Amino acid sequence: MNTVIIYSIIILSSIGILAAVILYFVAQKFKVHENPKIDEVEKALPGANCGGCGFAGCRAFAEACAKSNDLSDKLCTVGGNETMEKVADILGLKVEKKAPRVAVVRCNGTCENRPKTSHFDGASSCAVEASIYSGDTGCQFGCLGEGDCVAACNFDALHMNPETGLPEVDDDKCVACGACVEACPRNLIELRKKAPRNMKVYVACRNEEKGGVARKSCKVACIGCGKCVQVCPFDAITLVNNLAYIDSDKCRLCRKCVVVCPTHAIIDVNFPKPVIRGIPKPKAKPVAKAVDATDNSNPKTAEKPLTKTAPLSASKPAAKPTAKKEVTVSEK
Amino acid sequence: MLRTFKLGGIHPAGNKLSAGKPIEKLPLPKIVFIPIAQHIGAPAKPIVQPGDKVKVGQMIAQAGGFVSANIHSSVSGTVKKFAPAPDSGGYPKQCIVIEREGDEWEESILSKEENGDSLDAKTIIDRIKQAGIVGMGGATFPTHVKLMPPPGKIADILIINGVECEPYLTADHRLMLEKGEEIIKGVHLLMKALKVTKACIGIENNKKDAIKHLSELTSDDPEITIVPLKMKYPQGGEKQLINAITGREVPSGALPIETGAVVSNVGTTYAVYEAVLKYKPLFERVVTVTGKNLNKPSNFLVRIGTPIKDLIEAAGGSSLNGGKVICGGPMMGRAVNSTDIPVAKGTSGVLLMPESESKRGQEQDCIRCGRCVTVCPMGLEPYLLANVSSKKQWDIAEEHNVMDCIECGSCSYTCPANRPLLDHIRQGKKTVGGILRTRKMKKQ
């Protein structure tokens, strides 16, 4: 009995040792020689595998970086400039700092601004709804509110606001990976240049219909009037197909366009001081005090700022009459 | 023993409320919106300008390519403008707007048919092409293209689709009862065009009067057979019809011509008769207007371009109370959000469905019961295709033959968990179709 056990142990151990030796030599012979830098670069990356860089995961990005001589067209959107600097150090290359970007939902068709005209009774997906019909409001370009973008975000940066029916981006969590941009069937979300303190100025509308038609479906639609194009000192705004577009790389956040937009399609977000508009926000009932912005506690002082902003619109005759109209109303 | 197709199928209630109502001519509309894209393929190109005077049957838009169709005016009057109008696809599409003045028809349209015995295949196909005939069962595929199979593919049987398996719709039924002789003449014309000597007319067994009438008309005709079919949805699907009548199966990803069969709807066949023997282009069609709350469910002969609100009014109107207005039938039709939508060549019906009948139940998780697999007439796995399509796993969807889905809706209808299976499968088909096209283009 004992001998059987001893022999079994010896034989099995020998097989085990032989297999180990064979495996060792085979592993050495068939070893894949990879550039050791790829591993180093991969360690420096965030490891989210989000695809924001345009490559199939962090490993693929690391390989692409290690292979190339030039990092100018490569950016890890999650890690940002910090990570790219580390990668550049590892590879012995130089890299320029790139402006960070953030996702912006370019639609302000809230339940209040854009009334519903029908009820969608299909699968709760924006892609499905967009392929079935123009949507449950009069605007065939606007947000459908079913949340495909929210579902696509891996960084918990998008949430649906139940009151407005629109998705909202958490600027601090957004890493500009672009998943939401791809998910939106209406191409409403754009990666725009990120400004200090998350300040933004953008046209919150993508409606290409003629002004009158667009305005019927939504109070804050862009009507393609072109006032913003005229007033922008930095040539950042273009008007195509009855729709204005602000180039975030050229925009300096001066907000002159916000002041003149008659429908409040252009909005400014996260600014410390509200801008003083020449034209009141379109409301269902008529308002006695036109100006929204500054403190409305003293009607007399509220009156004066209006005339101060008039010079801006003074050079544009069209704006003047409306400004005067507001003054007479508040003088009451 | 009635013939039927092999796989799947469901039995929704027929609800043929308008089956006994003879076809009525709808009073002519004051203004028509004629879409320039009423068919599969390239939109037609308008050949009239605002201000032009047109007559009924005058060509107003020419086919925009090989797979395309001509469009003719359905009223006489003045072309007002080109403007977008909503369509059942859900988005505004370009239309030619014509204001009607009187009812003057083109002189070339004959009131009495001419003798068609001496016509050859080419002439027949040319006249069909001129007349802008497209598949009127709803698919709107240009008929003249269907009658010219690609080289190497030969047809040996013509199948006429008189099935009308969609609940509520009765347009084809009434057409078979009232225009039986003309339809038979149309069948002979199509047989000549395809150079086949055998034709079968498939009719579902709930239309016994139509089966009797057409059987009597063809009792002496050795070339045409009337085939009563078991009532089962979607018997009217091309592939299902071919399977039921001939036993042949269309291979995955292939067209019916692979099996030697060409299928044509009875409405299309009637339009072919009118086009070839009377030179009458396609500008009007029979539309069923129906619904449980409607005062007078009817079958109207409607001019193309008439807004559907005219039809609803003529059928006694109805208060919707949150229900759906559906262009087509309840299974494959499309709910629309406007009654300004014009009747197009493929509009077979307008169904007003009350909310209690049309609102979907609350969606729940899949319980893996497998009923959707049992009912799928194409032998697919709808629960899987819907699942992977919603998760954007397009490679798995392609592998499991999502492109073979005929979008009949049997899966969504049967699902006990109210899952919107077809909605997701359609997304899968759309995306995978795009991927396949790109792949094909890259190869070339």
Please summarize what this structure is:
The complex is a heterodimer of chains A (332) and B (444). Chain A has 332 residues and is of the alpha+beta class.
Task: List the defining traits of the structure above.
heterodimer, A: 332 residues, alpha+beta, 3-methyladenine DNA Glycosylase II, Chain A, domain 3, Alpha-Beta Plaits, two-stranded antiparallel sheet, two-stranded antiparallel ribbon, elongated, disordered C terminus, B: 444 residues, alpha/beta, Rossmann fold, six-stranded mixed β-sheet, four-stranded antiparallel β-sheet, 14 helices, 29% helix, globular
Question: Could you characterize the architecture of this molecule?
Answer:
- Chain A is α+β, with helices and mostly antiparallel strands and 332 residues long.
- Among the domains of chain A are: 37-91, 3-methyladenine DNA Glycosylase II, Chain A, domain 3 (Orthogonal Bundle), CATH 1.10.15; 101-275, Alpha-Beta Plaits.
- Chain A is built from twelve helices and eight strands.
- Chain A has helices spanning 2-29, 36-44, 58-67, 80-91, 126-132, 148-152, 179-183, 211-217, 227-231, 256-260, 299-314, 319-331; strands at residues 101-105, 158-160, 167-169, 189-193, 200-203, 237-240, 243-246, 266-269.
- Chain A has a two-stranded antiparallel ribbon with strand order 1-4. A two-stranded antiparallel sheet of chain A has the order 2-3. In chain A, strands 5-8 form a two-stranded antiparallel sheet.
- In chain A, β2 and β3 form a beta hairpin.
- Residues 285-332 of chain A have low confidence and may be disordered.
- With 444 residues, chain B is an alpha/beta fold.
- Among the domains of chain B are: 128-278, Rossmann fold (3-Layer(aba) Sandwich), CATH 3.40.50.11540; 371-443, no CATH class.
- Chain B is built from 14 helices and 17 strands.
- A six-stranded mixed sheet of chain B has the order 1-14-13-17-15-16. A four-stranded antiparallel sheet of chain B has the order 2-8-7-4, with no helix packed on it. In chain B, strands 11-10-9-12 form a four-stranded parallel sheet, with helices on both faces.
- In chain B, α1 packs across α4 (180-194), α3 runs parallel beside α5 and α11 packs across α14 (421-443).
- The interface between A and B is medium-sized, with 16 and 22 residues.
